[in-house]
Specification:
The protein is of the alpha+beta class and 415 residues long. The chain contains 15 helices and 9 strands. It has helices spanning 2-12, 15-28, 32-38, 41-66, 69-89, 114-132, 139-163, 171-197, 206-221, 226-257, 267-275, 296-303, 305-323, 347-362, 390-406; strands at 93-96, 99-102, 286-293, 327-333, 336-342, 365-367, 370-372, 376-383, 412-414. Helix 9 (206-221) runs antiparallel to helix 10 (226-257). It is elongated, with a radius of gyration of 27 Å.
Amino acid sequence: MESKIRVFLQKYRIEFIIAALVALVFTAHSRIGIFVDKARPVDYGVTMAVLSLAVFLVARISYPKIYKFKILLSGYVVVAFIINFFMISTETSVKIFGLNFFQKSMSIMPSGNFAYRFLFTILNLNLLVIMLVNAYVNYNAGKHSSWVAFALNIIVYFTVLIILPAHKSSHFVKGFLQTHLLINLVITGLIILLSFFNIEEEHNYGSIIVAVSFIVFYCEIYSQNLGQVKFLLPAMEVIIIWGMFAHWVNCLHHRAHYDPLLKIYNRQYMDNIIRGIADIRFGENLSVMMCDIDHFKKVNDTYGHAAGDAILFHIAQIIRETSLPEGIVCRYGGEEIIVFLRDKIGNDAKAKAEKIRKAVKAAGTKFKSKNIKVTLSIGVASTKEGMQDVGRIIKKADDCVYKAKKSGRDKVVAD
């Protein structure tokens, strides 16, 4: 149970949320807000401009490399938010349709610091949308959609600011100021919930959005303390930049080392394991399990290659989940999957192989209106010499698979 929790936290990328919580605790229990609020506006503005430019560039440059729409969209909406924030917090007064805006517009806004609270709520809504959108969209559609989101964030926000000053007692303003905490609590709760159920295989971007939402929620509550808000906004952008880079690097690593169909390690990564250049420590007790789907050619001929691909993916996921936490699963070739099993040899390794075989036999793959069941033949070989003996035990495991198939299939044969 403990190992499963550890694996989950590694996939979830909890470190971004921890960083956000540390920033919030530090802000709440220090007088940093006073110093930030008294800092020279030019220095703060330059810092935020540099960070915002970095957010925009990382989002923009990474998109053609990894095609992740969530990163691109989050970069654009965060920059739009920063522009809006500086527009309403600057000392400059600008007249639009006879009304004074930006800092001086705050004096004619309804009570309760509506402008800031509404701005943070819009950003939180954007974060929820980012959690809901597909990770991959059409390349040009992704670029256009991000620009549209950028423009809408600015236009909608300032349209509200233009209309509402003349209606201080409007039902919208009163209703919002009475319910803004509940609205943001629900939004943040939905973001957290979605982040648990949408963990991406190569890197969980959802935890970054959760971290940002925590900061946004805090700023929304304490929006009247502008010093604290100004301190947290650079922290928020640093977390976003860090998260974008981490997501970018992990996506590239995933693309290089994972099989795109089966979502397990590919043959290249298996070769890296054998050569000792992969960052994996097996120890002296090591087993290899060679898994081969029985009569897979017949499955392809009967149901088609699309069904075959669906079955391969499903079986690979069963093998991966069942072999945890000791197993490292790679695609060996075709329908063959190899598992490197650390700290289990002999009967223990065979028992793990039997568990995998039974799990595959019991499961069926749903394809269109059919539930297709297959079986697995597994060969197991063990050594007490670790990776020094890996070539020999791979050959032995392969020979054992052949014996399993010759003797009736759907069985485990151990050396």
